[in-house]
Amino acid sequence: MIPLSVLDLAFITEGGSAADALNRSADLARHAESLGFRRFWLAEHHAMPGIASAATAVVIGYVAGATKTIRVGAGGIMLPNHAPLAVAEAFGTLESLYPGRIDLGLGRAPGSDQATMRALRRDPTSAERFPQDVVELLHYFEKPQPGQGVFAVPGAGLTVPVWLLGSSLFSAHLAAIMGLPFAFASHFAPDLMEEAVALYRKHFEPSERLQKPYAMLSINAVIGETDAEAQQAATSLQQHFIALRQGRPTTFPAPRSVSWSSQEQRLLDNTLRYTFAGTAGSVAQDILAFVERHRPDELLIGTPLFSQAERRKTLSGIAHYLMGVEITADHNPQF
């Protein structure tokens, strides 16, 4: 089986707090580590009442400090929101504290709405400078040259893997020509996934950082004792997603019976088509079929469930069926 990793959005659940969400993230990372998952990534989102990872580098430090071996990283940092030097310093600091365990994924989306962009002092045209900003950021991780006036401390000379993230063709092509690993957000934007990966692999140019293309795809997994239980648990993600698309973001809702309009149902069926919900065995088969068809080099798995116990169970089920892990009481008492 290809390497499996975890994507966590640090959901603030209905009735919960940001502190609860961050503690849940650390707990899930420890669980993923015990099961043998390769990475645990967190994402930058701003002014969203249901997501606690806005200060992504800070959260990565917290999660890395709560674990011992699993790689922890950003999936991703929205580079147009930040000065490349500041990002290099932040991730140079993380790499200095947790050597060999830090990943830096970069995106060019705002991770917010227009009003929040202004509050972040972001230039609306900054996304247009994304390729130049990536080049500048990579430069700060190189060893300083004689006479170089600006360099990152910590950061300069450190090996921090840099990924480009995307949900369109732009970052796929940029990752290819820059010789960087590429991750596609197929868990919520699947339409261009196949075309983006094909473009990336076709145009890849080897670099000092990466000799051959490496593409990671993302999915969601929701595991229950029965298919019906899993489908009910998946309504949390559906509610959260529809609310976000309708411009009324909320905390992550508890599962409940919901009735969608035909338009809303079409949106869910299309956009969340790579959310696999069912028993552990059926979800494992769905994941195997996805991997067989799309041939990613690695899979990034989100567990968008309201219950922490069910998130842990979902990772346990995947690890058992796809990674051959024997689940014990220490891994998950409720498995």
Question: Could you please describe the fold and organization of this structure?
Answer:
Strands 1-2-3-4-5-6-7-9 form an 8-stranded parallel β-barrel, surrounded by 8 helices. It has one domain (4-323): TIM Barrel, CATH 3.20.20. It is 42% helix and 15% strand. The longest helix is centred in the N-terminal third of the chain and has 18 residues, at 18-35. Strand 3, helix 3 and strand 4 (102-107) form a beta-alpha-beta unit. The protein is built from 12 helices and 9 strands. The mean pLDDT is 94. It has 335 residues and is of the alpha/beta class.
CATH-scheme architecture: Alpha-Beta Barrel
Largest beta sheet, briefly?
8 strands, parallel, barrel
Secondary structure category: alpha/beta
Strands across the major sheet, in which order? Answer: 1-2-3-4-5-6-7-9
SS elements, strand count: 9
Radius of gyration: 19 Å
Termini Cα gap: 22 Å
CATH superfamily: Luciferase-like domain
Order of helices and strands: EHEHEHEHHEHEHEHHHEHEH
**Main CATH class:** Alpha Beta
Beta-strand portion reads 5-15%
From the 3D structure, determine the CATH topology: TIM Barrel
